[in-house]
Amino acid sequence: MAFSAWRGIAGIIHPTLRPGALEEFIRLLPEGIGVLPLFTNIRRGTRDEFEPMMSAYEEQIALLAEQNCDAIHPNGAPPFMIHGLKGEAKIISDWEKKYNVPIFSAGQNHISAMRALKVKSIVGATYFTGEINNSFSQYFKDAGFTVKCMEGVETPFDKAQELSGDQVYAHIKKHFLAQKGADAIYMLGSGWRTLHIIDLLEKDLGVPVIHPVAARVWEFQKRLYVNEPRSGYGHLLQALPAMVG
Asked: 152-187 burial string, b = 16+ CB within 10 Å, else e?
């Protein structure tokens, strides 16, 4: 048996059991869109933990497909980005063919948002450190963007949600100014609670912010043929630009 919602059903798979992102996502969605959330259980946030996660994601995708979701979003950028742009695209394409449902990853969602906003260059911020940020940068370079930097905040993976908006704002502003700007600011990861600084960053630095929670709300609206702007969370949700391609 599959249930229904009058404006469509969004299936979403969260990579961790971290609270916050799901609640934010649901609050920002228009009334009438149903949400079926499932979870994997990433704990450490390391490359060796990300690499074998595709089978865990697929189990959840199969369950969501059975429930007739209108689109499915396996959330969590790093587990997919480490497979590279082409590797990720094949994984998603194979799942779409197998389960006969539209599926989009976090990285694909962020690329779609950037293209909708006509972005060419980005300054990126993450809560990861070390070489994995190079993989994130390469992912977007392969998609045709200029990545001026992809700078991580020093914090344990399980403490990202405790970073204050002030800290994240200062981190992003510092690197944006050091790089002499870009077309957009990109925030990788749903772990931090930073929706409230999107508008402030956009006003102060004069460019749009691609935030993962806002970006997935935008794409689900587009995929479900809903058009309800949201103010206070950046240009993407306020303008609701069309998807490109």
From this structure: bbebebeebbebebeebbebbbebbeeeeebbbbbb
